[in-house]
Recover the amino acids of this structure.
């Protein structure tokens, strides 16, 4: 018996495909609709200028926490929940609180400007970075501390770049830089989780997508 989904031969009486796990007897799924890169961008970022700029702005908000991100990996068992971790965790939570406040303020303005929003986030991230760096490096978690320091520094750089690029009004350049901010965000979140900052890692920041 051949699998209706992938075509792999299976033994008579098998209920599921040994290759892809599809039920033997299921009808093959219809191929997914193919879209051009332009159509994907339109669906992801909106079709009007204002929708795309707002989408780029909200991408900045995830510099500290990925929006709608699935549960982060639990912290490594080797990281103790000591005074250092607790202080760093509180610092991270406070930074997220400030991000939320800046986001709400930006989205309450009409029209929202991604350059202004990114510029408002730069001091939040750089302050977090400087205060965390001032805590020093613990020998038992040096790699994780250095990773978070580097991730915060990179996030601040990418945010500052987004503020400058967005002010020039070039949509393609703004969206491209917003993706770099998104990548920097992922590095920050991974470093937060690896360092065992449990409260901060468990919090996500929601936002409303504004349509143009």
């Amino acid at each position: 018996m051949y699998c209706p989904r992938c075509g792999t031969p299976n033994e008579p009486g098998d209920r599921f495909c040994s290759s892809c796990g599809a039920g033997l007897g299921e009808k093959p799924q219809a191929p997914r609709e193919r879209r051009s890169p332009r159509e994907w961008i339109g669906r992801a970022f909106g079709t009007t200028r204002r929708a795309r700029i707002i989408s780029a702005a909200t991408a900045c908000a995830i510099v500290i926490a990925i929006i709608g991100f699935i549960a982060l990996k639990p912290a490594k068992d080797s990281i103790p929940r000591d005074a250092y971790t607790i202080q760093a965790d509180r610092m991270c939570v406070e930074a997220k609180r400030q991000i939320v406040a800046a986001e709400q303020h930006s989205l309450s303005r009409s029209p929202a400007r991604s350059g202004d929003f990114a510029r408002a986030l730069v001091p939040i991230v750089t302050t977090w970075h400087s205060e965390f760096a001032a805590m020093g490096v613990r020998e038992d978690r040096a790699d994780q501390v250095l990773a978070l320091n580097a991730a915060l520094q990179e996030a601040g750089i990418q945010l500052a770049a987004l503020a400058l690029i967005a002010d020039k009004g070039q949509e393609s350049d703004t969206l491209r830089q917003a993706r770099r901010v998104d990548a920097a965000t992922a590095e920050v979140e991974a470093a937060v989780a690896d360092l065992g900052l449990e409260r901060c890692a468990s919090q996500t920041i929601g936002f409303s997508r504004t349509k143009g």
Q: What stands out?
A: Residues 61-76, 206-212 have pLDDT under 50 and may be disordered. The helical segments are 37-45, 49-61, 83-108, 114-134, 142-167, 171-194, 198-202.
